[in-house]
Amino acid sequence: MFHINNSAGGSARYGRFVLLLAVGIVLYLIFLQTKGEFVIDSYINPLISPAHAFKNLLYSWDSTLLLGQSYTWSQTYLFPYSFFYYLLSFFFNVSMCQTVIFVLILWIGFYSFTKFIQTEFSTTSMYTYIGGLFYIFNLYTLINLAGASSLLLPYVILPLQLYLMHKIVLSERFFRYGVGFSLATLFMGGINPPLVAINMIVIFAYGIHLLFLHNLRKKLRPVLLRVLFCLALTVLVNAYWIVGILSFFQNSADMSTILSEPLSMQNQASSYLNVFRTLGLWAFGQGWDGVSYYGYSAAYLGKPLLMVSMYLLPLIALSSVVFIRKSKQIFWVLILIITSIPMVVATNQGIFSTAYAWAYDHVPLFSMFRGSYKFIQVYIFGLSILSAYLLVSIRNVKLKNALAAVLTILVLINAFPFFTKQLFQKDSIIQGIPSYYYDAEKYFRNDSSSFRIFLLPAQYFAVYDWGKISANPEILFNKGLVMRQAGSSEEESNKIALDAYAYLFNKDYGNFEYLMRTLNVKYILQRNDFDWAYYKEISQSPEVVADVLSKYEKVATFGKLDLYQINTDYLPLINSNNVTFEKVNSVKYKIYLKNIHSAQALSFLESYDTNWNLYLKQNPTGEWCRKQKEYKVKDDAYYALNDKINELNRVKKPDAAGRARLRELEFQKNNLSESTVTECVPRQKFMEGDEISFIYKKSVFDTTHTKVYGYANQWTIDADSIKKNFDKSNYTENADGSINVELTLYFKPQTYFDLGLIVSGVTLLGCFGYFIYGVNVNRKKRRNGTLPVSSSNE
Fold first, then answer.
1. Helix or strand holding residue 414 (H, E)
2. Coil, helix or strand for 89?
3. Continuous segment of H or E residues that includes residue 123
């Protein structure tokens, strides 16, 4: 095995260097955010409200956006990303929480890289720190730290995973390292499948490297068994988010759409030369409306000295192949570098572009790498290893020190925005959410009934006069929001929102109010802090908005927010004849139906999803309800008749036949029956104990589950079918022959998440219990003098 050692005191210097680096990064980031600012991130919910974001991620359905949507994919953000923000929010404001997160990301990346290198090369040389500096201070971390920090989690944890894999394969007492590997893998949760796949590819390549480097082919079976055991343990510890991703792949039409995106939507700009100097992002140097996406990009693209320095750094790192004899130690790194560069370039140029295009169309799941720039992290990882390898292996001290100085200077020059105010774009930094949004949140908190809010003006990403946050602080209200959101205008909820805007601004109030009714909308919120000039092509001016809203009553004002109530009866979230419902949480509802004589419709006004299922409860009573609100719901026929009456009334002097027709319609309208809907006080309880049983329980009325109102769910509840197919414990029969039933409406993917959470929790408790047991056993052995020194230090 390749072995290098340094002079005495290396470990002490290492400890001091790590401490100084950590303190320096903390002070540096605090300096950049001295005014209580925070940086807009790709996943901004924890910045708006850490507690709200964390609690929402415990459920597989989000009711606040897109008229309700599956949240199984977003649950991968639960740990560590959202959990850390939530935990830190008990001690710091949001700005400081983000600073601490950024510090942890950089420090973990540096520590895990140096730990891996020192183990791999059997050295504690301080020259490994230069490779660590390159690993955390480069364009990949620079771009993502200032906009998509969660994407750095698998990147910074990869070297630690490799270190632990090294110990799993070569150490006798491997179990603790297997637990460590499973915990490190938790950091891959808050991201996307391509980054998980990239880490797995690198780990696999490193495993093959260990197999050949240490001649383990004769011990292949026991090595494979311990690796498989540790991988199984990793799957169990990470079950909660792995299940979420698998559920999303299996059930989401959106994922199928993403995986079928044409190559024309993918990387068409990266070149081999740009990738070679670690500058491979297609959007680098581009912008919008004359403003560059990255303010520092002009320097990288136009400054000759900087461009030369960017080429020098990889050239020096790659020179290790020429000057160092024992290339067997780094052969696997070279393979990774050689394959990662064309993966970043993708179809833009070169011979490999044809192979990439073929794989994209024919190899299952290969299209997940549509954002091919992510592979540049493998390239940077390889260069960082080679630079450290070169320094620790050179024997000539003067040459070593000179080269170390050059590499350090090149790293710092190439990552210059880290050490200036240019790290974060000015328009991505805000002071915080204005206080009047929290005032509005208190107002809506006092009304716990279920309703939605229609947002004005129209938007794409939300841009305000206080900041371009590309998100909606209105999620604070914890109510459903109806609006045009980022993405295709053909997306179902966007089409509905665009119809609503069109009706309103054409003053077609009849269609507008009917649509609001079927969308469960109670209020309209006009955001006067919206940057209308930024979106003047799709948004409406404040004067136009004020004019079309003059028909409605303004019920409250919160700073720059005006709240209007629509003068129509909106449909309750769940409606049917004589129905009582209670929201247990966002994935579970209790429903009690009384006096069912025949078949009747049951509507649920969340986005249609086949995973919403109904389950019959035994011994129905409905006694769980604490009445909150009662609705008198008119049938759609009432509104159709009302439209005809209004049309006849517009005739100035109707003839006798017209007057007779008007009286007939009024009679029909007045004699239409109303249904009573009772909404109970919501419990907001995470689990009631029966959630896991929905894995095997049979749902009912699945064949009648259809889409209604263009987006929502509807079932037909048939009394005769219930009497025929279920025993009397599932319903109660009334004297007139009608029946009462109790149903549970449940989003089934939540069951898999709950099961995964239980598996993860039990596995972790088992691991910690094992460690506690081991500590107690070792303590007893030490007292008896029977514990070998090597065992205690392993």
1. helix 397-414
2. coil
3. none
Domain boundary among 533, 564, 595: 564
Helix (H) or strand (E) run with residue 90 in it? none
Closest by CA position to 524, among listed 463, 473, 492, 570: 570
Amino acid at 552: Y
**What one-character-per-residue DSSP string does 687-751 give?**
--S-GGGGGTSPPBSGGG-EEETTTEEEEEEEHHHHHHHS-GGG-EE-TTS-EEEEEEEEETHHH
Q: Residues 260, 230: one domain?
A: yes
Closest by alpha carbon to 133, among 360, 419, 398, 370? 419
Structural domain includes residue 309? yes
Total domain count, the chain: 3
The Cα 121–Cα 10 span in angstroms is 14
Please tell me the distance from the alpha carbon of residue 731 to that of residue 451, in angstroms, as a whole number.
30
Please tell me whether residues 532 and 584 are part of one structural domain: no
Q: Which of 408, 427, 446 is the last residue of a domain?
A: 427
Q: Are residues 246 and 390 in the same domain?
A: yes
For residues 8 and 735, what is the distance between their CA atoms, to the nearest angstrom?
Answer: 93
Q: Residue 3 has what pLDDT?
A: 42
How many whole angstroms separate alpha carbon 125 and alpha carbon 390? 12
d(CA 323, CA 336): 20
Q: Does a structural domain hold residue 792?
A: no
User: Cα–Cα distances in Å, from 73 out to 156, 488, 584, 686?
Assistant: 22, 19, 22, 19
552 and 608 in a single domain? The answer is no
159 and 208 share one domain? yes
Strand partners for 429:
39
Assess contact for 76 and 190: CB atoms under 8 A.
yes
- Write the single-letter amino acid at 714: Q
Asked if residue 334 lies in contact with residue 318, where contact means CB atoms within 8 angstroms, the answer is no
In a domain, residue 146? The reply is yes
pLDDT at residue 173 in the model: 82
Distance separating alpha carbons of residues 17 and 11, to the nearest angstrom = 10
> For residues 136 and 132, what is the distance between their CA atoms, to the nearest angstrom?
7
Q: What is the DSSP-derived secondary structure letter of residue 681?
A: P
Instruction: Please report the pLDDT score of residue 7 as a whole number.
Output: 43
Both 57 and 149 in a single domain?
A: yes
Do 528 and 413 have their domain in common?
no
Residue 78's φ and ψ, nearest 5 degrees, are: -55, -50
Can you state the percent helix, strand and coil of the chain, rounding each to 5?
A: 55, 15, 30
**Same domain for 42 and 123:** yes
Can you give the pLDDT at residue 344? 87
Classify residue 33 by its DSSP letter: T
Q: Identify whether 457 is preceded by a cis peptide bond (ω within 30 of 0).
A: yes
Closest of 406, 383, 378 to residue 308, by C-alpha:
406
- What residues does 456 pair with on adjacent strands? 526
Cα 472 from Cα 477, distance rounded (Å): 10
Give domain status of residue 136, yes or no.
Answer: yes
Enter the pTM of the model.
0.86
What integer pLDDT is reported at residue 584 of this predicted model? 92
Cite the beta strand spans of 579-673 per DSSP E. 579-585, 588-596, 599-604, 612-616, 627-634
Token reading at 48: 């708006």
- Cβ within 8 Å of residue 515, ≥6 positions away: 496, 499, 500, 503
Confidence (pLDDT) at 147: 82
Q: What residue ranges of the chain have pLDDT lower than 70?
A: 1-19, 22, 26, 29-35, 189-191, 248-269, 289, 323-326, 347-350, 568, 637-639, 641-642, 650-654, 667-673, 781, 785-794
- Look at residue 145 in the predicted model and tell me its pLDDT: 87
- Locus of tokens 């009631």: 688
Domain around 363? 10-63+72-427
Q: Enumerate residues 6+ apart whose C-beta is below 8 A from 768.
A: none
Helix axes 239-251, 749-784, angle to 10 degrees: 160
Q: Residue 632: which residues within 8 A CB-CB, separation 6 or more?
A: 569, 674, 675, 676
Q: If you search the block for the tokens 């404001």, which residue do you land on? A: 93
